[in-house]
């Protein structure tokens, strides 16, 4: 499974990690809903460090699509809300 | 739907607008390559901009440190002249500057991290662009138009995702720098007038100290003249 951490490139990760990542992802959704900035930052950090610890950086010469795209580690709560509201982060 | 599903949606929407142009495969490949080169230039500019901003903050920090040293000197001089009130005033100003200096240190550290991240992004993108160039020429040379379509879509999907990622990184870095520029300008203004006035000039503490210095000079001169005249 290929995961992209925005701003940090792609990582090759075992599919077995998916459950753990989904679990953290759900907690992130919960923290954003509760407007809990510190909790949100903590969860996002653990999501990203789990991917980096258990995954291998993809060879940069490989050009492949990712299965999962994770937002950048310094995403703010406001930006996360914009992602959830569908307004996105990227200008056209 | 979780955050990473949402994030994928956001990125894929951006990718689709980049891939809309698939008509003639060869043309599409060349067009995308040209866009990649432009993006690479943008990242390089981004790295340079972060470095410049860091430099500016470092200069500002040096200026603040200099002022803090001056205030320390003023406080010491005031204590020597038994003027605790003046010393206190100078030290209060110094303490306000200390907070500003700490905030500058944090911003400089943030920019350093930002620069390292963008430099890594530049290296990654540069490798991918070269890899794409080779792939593009292979596709052009080896496949018929119909076969090429699949290969083109494959490599374009991967590179478009990379480009969406890098595009966002550059955009966020620009936003961060704008915020810091605004803060830095505000600090310059504070130092220029208002609370953090120019301590090298004629502020109250300096005026009082100058008076004390003048008085002791006069006293010394008077004593010298008296001695010379035997009075």
Short synopsis of the structure:
The complex is a heterodimer of chains A (92) and B (231). With 92 residues, chain A is of the alpha+beta class.
Task: Set out the fold topology.
The complex is a heterodimer of chains A (92) and B (231).
Chain A: E1 2-5, E2 9-12, H1 18-33, H2 37-54, E3 56-57, E4 68-70, H3 77-84
Parallel strand pairs in A: 1-4
Antiparallel strand pairs in A: 1-2, 2-3
Chain B: H1 3-19, H2 25-80, H3 84-142, H4 145-192, H5 204-228
Helix pairs in contact in B: 1-4, 2-3, 2-4, 3-4
Tags for this model:
heterodimer; A: four-stranded mixed beta sheet; 3 helices; 14% strand; B: 231 residues; mainly alpha
Task: Describe it.
The complex is a heterodimer of chains A (92) and B (231). With 92 residues, chain A is an alpha+beta fold. Chain A is 46% helix and 14% strand. A 4-stranded mixed beta sheet of chain A has the order 3-2-1-4, covered by helices on one side. The radius of gyration of chain A is 13 Å and the shape is globular. With 231 residues, chain B is mainly α. Helix content of chain B is 89%, strand content 0%. Chain B is built from 5 helices and no strands. In chain B, helix 1 packs across helix 4, helix 2 runs antiparallel to helix 3 and helix 2 packs parallel to helix 4. The model of chain B has no long low-confidence stretch (mean pLDDT 84).
Query: What coarse outline of chain B follows from CA principal-axis ratios?
Result: rod-shaped
Largest interface, counted with CB-CB under 8 A?
A-B, 35 and 36 residues
Q: State the end-to-end distance of chain B.
A: 97 Å
Percent helix of chain B, as a range, is over 70%
């Amino acid at each position: 499974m290929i995961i992209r951490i925005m701003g940090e490139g792609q990582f090759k990760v075992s599919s077995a990690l998916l459950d753990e990542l989904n679990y953290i992802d759900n907690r992130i959704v919960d923290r954003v809903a509760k407007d809990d900035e510190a909790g949100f930052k903590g969860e996002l950090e653990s999501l990203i460090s789990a991917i980096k610890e258990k995954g291998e950086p993809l060879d940069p010469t490989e050009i492949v699509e990712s299965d999962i795209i994770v937002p950048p580690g310094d995403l703010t709560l406001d930006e996360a809300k914009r992602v959830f509201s569908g307004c996105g982060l990227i200008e056209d | 739907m979780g955050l990473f599903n949402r994030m994928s949606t956001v990125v894929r929407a951006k990718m689709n607008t980049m891939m809309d142009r698939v008509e003639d495969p060869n043309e599409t490949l060349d067009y995308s390559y040209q866009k990649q080169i432009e993006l690479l230039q943008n990242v390089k500019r981004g790295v340079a901009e972060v470095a410049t901003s860091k430099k500016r903050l470092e200069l500002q920090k040096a200026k603040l440190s200099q002022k803090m040293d001056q205030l320390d000197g003023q406080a010491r001089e005031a204590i020597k002249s038994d003027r605790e009130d003046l010393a206190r005033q100078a030290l209060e100003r110094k303490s306000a500057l200390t907070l500003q200096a700490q905030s500058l240190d944090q911003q400089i550290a943030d920019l350093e991290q930002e620069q390292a991240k963008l430099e890594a992004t530049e290296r990654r993108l540069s490798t991918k662009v070269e890899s794409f160039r080779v792939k593009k020429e292979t596709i052009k040379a080896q496949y018929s138009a119909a076969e090429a379509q699949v290969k083109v879509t494959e490599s374009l999907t991967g590179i478009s995702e990379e480009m969406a990622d890098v595009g966002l990184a550059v955009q966020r870095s620009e936003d961060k720098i704008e915020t810091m520029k605004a803060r830095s300008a505000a600090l310059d203004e504070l130092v220029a007038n208002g609370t953090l006035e120019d301590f090298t000039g004629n502020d109250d503490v300096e005026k009082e100290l100058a008076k004390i210095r003048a008085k002791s000079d006069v006293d010394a001169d008077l004593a010298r003249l008296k001695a010379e005249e035997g009075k």
